[in-house]
Design brief:
231 residues, alpha+beta, 4 strands, 6% strand
C-alpha cells in the first residue's frame, strides 16, 4: 500500500554531512526512464546466443577453406554457448518496482542480511509506523554473481565512470556482505535519514538516499557520508 500521502514527521531534521564537512541536502531520487532488468536480461541472453552462433559460423568457414586448399588443420574444439547469468531470488534478486517486507524471511535478500542490521531496521519500522510510514525493501543481500551482473549491466548502460559511482564491485559491496539495505518509498527514506541514527542506522553514500547501513551507536550522530560507492 502506498504511503506517499502520509504526513512527514515534524521533528527537527539534522542534515548529514560528507567527509569534507559539507552539508548534504536531501534530494529525492529523480525517476528515470530505463529498461527493466527483465528486458535487459533477455537482451544479454540473446547477445550470448548470437556470439555463439557467430563463432560456430566462423569455424564452419575455416573448415570449408581448409578443405578447398588441401590444408590439414587440427580439429577445433566443440563450441558451446557460454552460460548466461540470470539473477534469481536465490541471488537476492528483487524485481524492479517491487518492495518486499523486512519480515519476508523466506527470501534470501532478507534472511541473509546481517542479523544486527535486520533487527535495527525492524525496530525502526515499528517506530516509523507511529508516523504512518512503511519501510519497503528494494534490495538487501546480493550474491557476488548478482552484484557483478549489476555492475556489468550498468557499465553497458551508462559507462564505467558513472556505473562505479552507484554499483560497487562484489569484493567491495556492502550488499554482498549483508551489511547494507536499500529502502523505499521516498517518505521512508526521508524518515530514516531523519531518525535512523536513533537505531544506529545511517545513510552512508551522499548520492544514494535509499542506501542504509548500521554505521553508528544507537542514539549517536551518523558519521560523515562517503561521496558515492567509489568513495
Amino acid at each position: 500500500m502506498s504511503t506517499s500521502s502520509a504526513p512527514v514527521p515534524t521533528r527537527p531534521l539534522a542534515l548529514p554531512t560528507t567527509e569534507s564537512g559539507r552539508r548534504v541536502t536531501f534530494v529525492p531520487p529523480r525517476p528515470r526512464a530505463r529498461t527493466s532488468r527483465r528486458v535487459r536480461r533477455r537482451r544479454l541472453a540473446l547477445g550470448a546466443v548470437a556470439v555463439a552462433g557467430a563463432v560456430a559460423l566462423g569455424a564452419s568457414a575455416i573448415g570449408a577453406l581448409a578443405g578447398s586448399s588441401g590444408l590439414q588443420l587440427p580439429p577445433m574444439p566443440p563450441v558451446f554457448p557460454g552460460a548466461v547469468f540470470t539473477p534469481s531470488a536465490d541471488d537476492g534478486y528483487i524485481d524492479d518496482g517491487v518492495q518486499v517486507s523486512l519480515w519476508d524471511d523466506d527470501l534470501p535478500a532478507i534472511s541473509r542480511i546481517d542479523p544486527e542490521l535486520l533487527a535495527a531496521m525492524r525496530a525502526a519500522e515499528a517506530r516509523a509506523a507511529d508516523d504512518g510510514i512503511r519501510l519497503g525493501v528494494t534490495s538487501g543481500w546480493r550474491s557476488a554473481g548478482y552484484q557483478q551482473w549489476l555492475l556489468d549491466d550498468r557499465i553497458a548502460s551508462v559507462g564505467e565512470e558513472t556505473a562505479r559511482a552507484y554499483v560497487a564491485t562484489p569484493e567491495q559491496s556492502r550488499h554482498v556482505s549483508g551489511d547494507a539495505i536499500d529502502i523505499g518509498p521516498v517518505d521512508a527514506q526521508y524518515w530514516l535519514i531523519s531518525y535512523g541514527s536513533e537505531f544506529g542506522i545511517c545513510q552512508t553514500y551522499g548520492n544514494e538516499p535509499w542506501h542504509f547501513e548500521l554505521a553508528t551507536t544507537p542514539g549517536s550522530e551518523c558519521p560523515p557520508m562517503r561521496t558515492d560507492a567509489n568513495g
